[in-house]
Amino acid sequence: MALFIAGLHLGSITAQTKPVYSAVSLDKKVTSLLKKMTLEEKVGQLNQYNGFWDVTGPSPKEGQAAKKYENLKKGLVGSMLNVKGVKEVRTLQKIAVEQTRLGIPLLFGFDVIHGYKTISPIPLAEAASWDLQAIQQSAAMAAEEAGAVGINWTFAPMVDISRDARWGRVMEGAGEDTYLGSLIAKARVLGFQGDLSSNKNILACAKHFAGYGFSEAGRDYNTVDIGESTLQNIVFPPFKAAVDAGVRTFMNSFNELDGIPATGNAYLQRKILKGDWGFQGFVVSDWGSIMEMQVHGYAKDLKHAAELAINAGSDMDMESSAYVEHLVQLVREGKVKESTLDEAVKRILRTKFVLGLFDNPYKYCNEEYEKTTVGKAEFHQQVLEMAKKSMVLLKNKDEILPLKKSGQKIALIGALAADKTSPLGSWRLAADDNTAVSVLEGLQAYKDNQLTYAKGADVALGEPKFVFETKINTTDKSGFEEAITAAKNADVVIMVLGEHGLQSGEGRSRTDIGLPGVQQELLEAVYAVNPKIVLVLNNGRPLALPWADEHIPAIVEAWQLGTQSGNAIAQVLYGDYNPSGKLPMTFPRNVAQVPIYYNHKNTGRPAANEPESVFWSHYIDEEHTPLYPFGFGLSYTKFDYSDLKLSSSSFKTNGKIEVSVTITNTGKVAGKEVVQMYIRDLFASVTRPVLELKGFEMIELQPNESKKVVFTIDEKTIEFYTANAKWEAEAGDFKVFVGGSSAQTVQANFQFNN
Description:
single chain
């Protein structure tokens, strides 16, 4: 049965979770345990610590580590994060289960964002596949590998919608569209959690609740100031999709919303999440976000921050120590009701029971399984297939691609082409450096062409590290001459340019989203001697590339594709895989256009009234259209859309319209096409976007083959959060668009009458 949320049809992928307990028996177990707990032990379940000492060595004797260790032995810790490896996890779990009074097991959390040791493409790249089954399988693979090393909880998926490419964390999400983002949220939750009775699945965490992707100026951790319509229609639906998919945990966000930090925001956590949506899991703060409410200017001190956070519905404290230090006193002073504390504890205990930890605290602690699971060949094959599906062909003038497999001299240029670490991307905390297949290695597997490599220029200076800012090379051009010489003698040049894997991600906001450093100069210098260039982009965000789009004949968006990056890129360049990816986020012509997104509002002056008029919504020094629109992506073949038909020109309450279109492969090779359906509500109680994605289907066609694709439009398709402050379908006039992107469509009109 299809799952519906907030007007979105959420597809046919289904959960496989087998409940360990019935709802009644689970409630009895949780209530029974809660009655045995002291006030201090209750608070302890709300306390999460970062890994604080080498558990294979002696126990800490002094400092913060010693204090945390003593709290662990007293049962005053409910969860640990950044502890990995069966030996380490078992040691800490053994303390919690065998040395504390009640023996309540720990949760072990880790940022398994796009793989554990075997790395898949970054989430934004996976979103470009538009392949929900593949995305679900990717999350399942990551869960299996993480579970094998003792981890039972990931802080993923990030389901924040963002329209701002300056924000580095766009690499961690599904892009700008609410409909696609909701489907991907569901797929990733089901992939991570699957059957929680198995040690192959782990808890998922929907983050960051809410509005984090709308940080002002694209600057991480910045203020968010958006209206209720945007919050309800754009931001909330992917989170609701995660709830409906059964996600067990939520993480609140660093930002404030309408003047209130999300961690202390009762409207978000109590009214919407736990009230309106009926969320039964628990909410964990982001790292230190309870403590940071002081810095926001919202809390007087750490004790006040603890009071605000728990009363607002933040159940677990990640690394602020606010709860463990102050909650007992706050309850005794009457500033926090014990029933409020009990509710938070119940949510955490319930999750531990659902995960099966009370039946087997060591279910994720099998060292032999760890050895045979981590990095197994099956995982490498899965990430290779995911990487190929994630690539987007942006330009292919004169069909320079695919490459001929013999008789060509190929110059490969760019530091990223030989890099074995950068392709792993950001948020790959457990992966080892130098473990990705480089583009150089991938191309070397094709033996019948002459391949010459020249670095050209470094992208980053030094060895980029996750916790430090990556320094960009803006001066060193010493490798230019070698690259130019190689290009002069080549039949075709492949240039691998873009961002280092740690130039996007958390804390990596940028004001210039062109090619970093001297890479643009390198590109132009090589072009001057040999314009037959294939530009392969490695990046974690949309880039502004107007010069490249104008001059370079072939451009491939290859993102940061993970462990099998080089093999995937080589197979696409040589045509052993026909690219089918579509952009999940708009590419601007200029950073000044940002935020730029396809589902914008029309405004009262979308176009000039007279040919020479200046009084309309535009720039006087740049096009107002994007460089590459949402949903865009080419293939090595071509697809023609024709014969758009509606089963009716109108429908009423409980009715529907079927929209059919014929797609024909008019090229010479087989290919896959993501057929996209958009609608436009022409007038409403709240102004609506010029386009909204409401359906898509991936089809594969042989040369000259045609296929009819049918979409259904009903009330759920057209409903939105109206001026009546509820989700509903309003009567009116609509347009439907079907095509291969948001900018290339055929269209028709229909009406809804209620």
